[in-house]
Design brief:
The structure holds four protein chains of four kinds. By secondary structure, chain B is an alpha/beta fold. Chain B has one domain: Lumazine/riboflavin synthase (Rossmann fold). By secondary structure, chain D is α/β, with parallel strands linked by helices. Chain D folds into two domains: 132 residues, no CATH class; 113 residues, no CATH class. In chain D, strand 5, helix 4 and strand 6 form a beta-alpha-beta unit. Classes of the chains: A alpha/beta, B alpha/beta, C alpha+beta, D alpha/beta. Chains in contact: A-C, B-C, B-D, C-D.
């Protein structure tokens, strides 16, 4: 049975006005990646959202950017931010207690329901892990609903791997969860690295994770070349296009499918996406 | 609509001209420093910004300053021949001559954009230049250009910014001061 | 009901005493809709304004909220609602169709854009049918009737000495009943308007599905300058950017028209740009006009007003593109 | 043979021989007397090329877009050839990258009014200055008496009138950047308006931001403007941009000696990127 992804599931009022939120915790994940936990000024969770949904997180004086909610609890939402541009650079200067702007949630979410009972294969590269992690954490929370879980994760250097604690200490000890990590290149700073060296797609192929007669769902998030090569590897391994899920990214401003720039054909990534199956993407006119 | 010649006849009470002075680090900025050391008095309407050389003076800074609330702009550099980088102020001289004419062509009064060469020893000239610029602009009144952001009234210039006023000036190139 | 042409100005003046009435006029050499005031001469014979009336609903720069910091260093957000009662008088049927498109964009698909919605609710549209067409007008080919706008609140049709007045919505009926002293009973046949430029949209939407990688885009885009003229004069182009101006910790966040023709439009912080060249940008623009919007909202995003045809610096002409698509031999569609 | 026939024949020969990869000229548009730029790579399309007195667009800027495909052939009039010289002097292209088919230009006309285009009545070099071959003879055209007449008109106003005059211009500007995109001098890889990170100019459309853009544009192209007048022609709001460009040119003329950009290929720096010790001193 094909995976069903809901699209255009937007709801909400006053979509363009943010709320002021407070940073309660900052974790330095790598030298240029930080995670921020946010609550409202009166200490509540800013919004309820499903795993994989987006939030427009920013600073009032600098602008706002779209991020996937990388983790959440009943009290807070968390965003994981890599320093690449003007706003993210300023976000990295935040300290605990600072006020930020937040609006959302936007977009659709991982098809947690229709993946139930399946084996999960998560594939991510670099800063592509946080979006995937939102689904992974959901699966671990509802462990009995899902089969075997594999995580294939790569980064170009050891320092670029995010969530190292979970990656190396927590997740490998979860029942029937297998974590596979590779580095793109030898890392001279970390000669002790005993894991694999190689790009994600060839590494994935060595792991021999097959489609299990359509019972395994692959979830990809990474840069353009990682996405392309991993898709090809999975298709070669016999995966059905409908069982390969990915979350897309483009520049976004409004978050509600009106400002125009994040379209893939007639679809807007911020509203109909960001999560699509490969089968759906194949029918779209995509510049991504 | 009658053409308002300038704002000189309608200067609001309490109005103080705001002038920004872009000063070359190697001469005028030092000259300004010397003026301070010699306890020369000059009006506080001028805010001094340090640039590495008058050749670095980007015409955009002038437009931005006028758009953002200044009533006049002063650019000061080393005397021709004395540039720390040998030729920077020669380029600046050409560029500023053209740019000043362009601004005046667009209707800016000549007194609002002035360029002067002031060396590090000419503390008195710095003071006189600043005093003259302030008097020129004061006589002209508030600027007669449509300003930025019609949407929200700009707060006053840093006069009310206690932080900026109480800030201790950062030490500039301490090793050179010692040398 | 008829409105004699002599009564037109008295009606407008009486309307303008209460609310802002926007009429087609020429200001400083620019043809646009401007607020009726002293010195503004309405020109209802003008075929089409250069600047579309979309800025009444969706201004080129629109402030959304401003923020400031209180004594404790806490941010506060203050929202703006600048919408007011407005009447647009003399809007052409093609521009009325563009408002249908904008309504779809801003008011449907789960989120309602409150800024647009507020302005839209307070706008009374009085459309005047065309009596003559410019050489660049091709509205009939895009399914617009030049003498009739079905979604206008009030429709005026030229019958020679008078306009035939039809109220088409409750809002329009309320308006017309208030104009009674300027109206007279009667009926007359509206003057027809002959639109000479015709293109065939038949099959174009479906054909475009298979033409994403066609060389037609390369040939078309090569002459494009990548300026934003076509998008800014287009009555249906609605892309916007959100930006802010700051003064220390205070600032205002606003949205402003943006153009898919600019390289910066899709450039991402990491340096990747999904539409790096004018080929991709041109293709996206025309696909959006003729195919994507049709697929998403069930209507074409081109209303045939001819403004981009008229104003393009390099005479890049959407009507020629439509003709070219019509005569293009599509390879057999892939199995989807 | 008419110039148009020569152009078609030569474009065909050049493309067939493989000497050039693309040829840039004009083709007829949909409407009477309308022309639009045409880029061809196939010799069979040479028959589409036209040359008549309504070829308003300049072609030189397209060279930068199609250069990757190989040597470019194009038709050049006076303005196109100066634009090519400008691009060469700015090291955007090399002389050997282009094959120039020169054509004498009698001045182009507006297709609607049939009046000469403003940019053409003001043109001082209607015949190509650089070319590899000529299609036909040079054309005769009256040269304007005073190049800076329109600048002097503005200068004659009072300061307050000029403020109002230019503010009314900036109030009309919609910042479509057509003036930048058509300009053969605007060859920065990334224009300052696209540098959002630096945020030189805000995105609001208002008089102040538009003035910032307008003045910066003039200063950036100042000593390189070839006076082709394309910025003014393409402006959808019909803003008199040459009044700004020519003001700078006039001042450089007065201050630093006779100035006309893009006349000869040379490695000499242009007026504002050089200096003389003897330059006039106004800031003592």
């Amino acid at each position: 049975m094909a995976i069903e992804i809901s699209h255009g599931c937007a709801k909400g009022e006053r979509p363009l006005i943010p709320q002021v939120c407070r940073v309660t915790e900052i974790t330095q994940e790598t030298p240029d990646v930080k995670s921020f936990r946010l609550v409202t000024l009166d200490g509540k969770k800013p919004f309820d959202c499903e795993p994989g949904q987006l939030g427009m997180f920013g600073l009032l004086s600098y602008g706002e950017c779209m991020f996937v909610v990388s983790a959440q609890s009943d009290e807070w939402v968390q965003f994981t931010v890599k320093k690449v541009g003007l706003v993210t650079e300023q976000l990295h200067n935040l300290s605990v207690g600072d006020e930020v702007s937040l609006r959302g949630p936007y977009g659709n979410w991982w098809p947690t329901e229709s993946c139930r009972g399946k084996d999960m294969l998560f594939i991510a590269g670099g800063i592509g892990l946080p979006p995937v992690r939102s689904f992974l954490l959901y699966c671990l929370e509802h462990r009995e609903d899902y089969g075997r879980i594999d995580l294939v994760y790569s980064g170009s250097k050891y320092d670029d791997l995010v969530f190292k604690e979970q990656l190396f200490d927590i997740w490998p000890n979860e029942p029937d969860m297998h974590v596979h990590v590779s580095l793109y290149h030898e890392d001279p700073k970390h000669p002790e690295w005993k894991g694999d060296i190689g790009y994600t797609a060839p590494y994935l192929e060595t792991l021999d994770l097959g489609p299990e007669d359509g019972n395994r769902v692959a979830v990809i998030c990474g840069g353009p070349s990682l996405s392309r090569t991993c898709r090809e590897s999975l298709l070669k391994a016999g995966f059905d296009e409908g069982n390969i899920l990915t979350t897309l990214e483009m520049r976004m401003k409004c978050g509600v499918g009106k400002c125009g720039r994040c379209n893939m054909g007639g679809h807007f990534i911020c509203l109909d996406g960001p999560i699509f199956s490969l089968a759906e993407i194949a029918t779209m006119h995509s510049d991504v | 609509m009658p053409v308002v010649e300038n704002n000189a006849n309608a200067i609001p009470e309490d109005w103080e001209p705001k002038i920004i002075a872009f000063c070359c680090h190697w001469c005028t900025y030092t000259g300004a420093d010397l003026a301070g050391l010699n306890r020369m008095n000059y009006p506080a309407n001028v805010r001094v910004l340090r640039i590495p050389c008058s050749g670095r003076m980007n015409p955009q800074y002038v437009i931005e300053a006028l758009n953002k609330g200044c009533d006049g702009v002063l650019v000061c550099g080393c005397h021709p021949g004395d540039c720390h980088y040998v030729t920077g102020n020669y380029y600046a001289r050409r560029r500023m001559m053209i740019f000043k004419r362009l601004l005046e062509y667009e209707g800016l009064e000549p007194g609002r954009f002035q360029v002067k060469w002031i060396s590090g020893a000419e503390a008195g000239k710095f003071r006189d230049t600043v005093m003259k610029a302030v008097e020129d602009v004061r006589a002209l009144g508030p600027i007669n250009l449509t300003r930025e952001i019609p949407y929200f009234e700009l707060p006053a210039m840093p006069d009310d910014d206690e932080e900026a006023f109480n800030a201790v000036p950062e030490e500039v190139f301490p090793e050179e001061v010692n040398a | 009901m008829l409105l004699s042409k002599q009564n037109l100005m008295p009606l407008l003046n009486s309307l303008a005493s209460d609310v802002d009435v926007f009429v087609p006029t020429t200001i400083d050499g620019v043809k646009k809709f401007a607020r009726l005031a002293d010195g503004v001469e309405p020109d209802f014979d003008m075929i089409n304004t250069t600047m579309p009336p979309k800025d009444l609903l969706f201004p080129q720069t629109q402030k959304m909220y401003h923020f400031d910091v209180d004594k404790n260093g806490s941010y506060h957000i203050h929202e703006y609602d600048e919408s007011r009662e407005q009447i647009v008088f003399g809007i052409r049927p093609c521009d009325m169709r563009s408002i249908v498109c904008l309504d779809e964009v801003f008011l449907t698909k789960g989120f309602v854009d409150e800024f647009y919605a507020n302005a839209r609710e307070k706008l009374l549209t009085v459309s005047i049918g065309c009596t003559q067409a410019a050489e660049t007008c091709f509205c009939t080919s895009m399914g617009v009737d030049p003498i009739y706008a079905p979604n206008a609140d009030v429709m005026l049709q030229d019958t020679g000495d008078a306009y035939k007045v039809t109220a088409q919505t409750p809002k329009g009926e309320a308006a017309v009943s208030a104009w009674s002293e300027f109206l007279s009973d009667g009926d007359a046949e509206p003057v027809n308007c002959d639109v000479t430029l015709k293109v065939s949209m038949e099959g174009v939407v479906d054909k475009l599905e298979g033409m994403y990688d066609s060389p037609i885009w390369e040939n078309l885009s090569i002459k494009c300058l990548n300026c934003g003229t076509c998008t800014y004069v287009c009555p249906t182009c609605h892309c916007f950017d959100i930006s802010q101006e700051n003064r220390k910790k205070d600032g205002v966040r606003f949205r402003c028209w943006d153009s898919c023709m600019f390289s910066e439009y899709t450039a991402m912080a990491g340096g990747h740009n999904p539409r790096p060249e004018k080929l991709e940008r041109e293709r996206n623009r025309f696909m959006h006009k003729l195919n994507f919007f049709e697929r998403r909202y069930g209507m074409s995003l081109c209303v045939g007003c001819g403004r981009c045809v008229e104003k393009c610096p390099v005479a890049l002409d959407i009507t020629r593109l439509i003709d070219d698509i019509g005569s293009y031999e599509v390879a057999p569609a892939s199995a989807e | 043979m008419s110039a148009q026939e020569i152009i078609r024949a030569r474009a065909k020969e050049l493309l067939e021989s493989g000497e050039i990869a693309t040829f840039i000229g004009w083709e007829a548009g949909r409407f009477t007397n309308q022309t639009t730029p045409l880029v061809i790579t196939d010799a069979a399309d040479a028959g589409k090329l036209v040359f008549n007195e309504y070829c308003a667009n300049t072609l030189a800027k397209y060279v930068t877009d199609v250069l990757a495909r190989g040597k470019v052939g194009l038709v050049v009039r006076g303005c196109d050839s100066r634009a090519i010289v400008r691009l060469i002097n700015d090291k955007v292209i090399k002389r050997e990258d282009v094959y120039l088919v020169g054509v004498g230009c009698p001045g182009m006309k507006d297709r609607k009014t049939d009046e000469p285009l403003k940019k053409c009545t003001e043109c001082r070099h209607n015949n190509p200055l650089v070319f590899d071959e000529m299609a036909g003879e040079n054309a005769e055209k009256a040269v304007p008496e005073d190049r800076f007449a329109e600048v002097k008109e503005v200068e004659a106003m009072t300061a307050a009138e000029r403020t109002r005059y230019f503010e009314s211009i900036y109030a009309k500007c919609i910042r479509c950047y057509a003036c930048r995109d058509v300009c053969p001098c605007c060859t920065c890889r990334e224009c300052f308006v696209d540098q959002r990170r630096e945020n030189w100019v805000g995105k609001q459309n208002n008089v102040a931001e538009n003035r910032f853009y307008g003045l910066t544009r003039v200063m950036h192209i100042g000593d390189r403007c070839i006076e082709c007048g394309e910025c003014e022609r393409v402006c959808p709001m019909d803003l008199p941009l040459m009044k700004l460009n020519r003001k700078v040119i006039q001042d450089m003329n007065d201050l630093f000696g006779e100035f006309e950009s893009g006349l000869v290929i040379s490695a000499e720096p242009s007026v504002l990127t050089t200096y003389e010790l003897t330059d006039r001193e106004e800031f003592m």
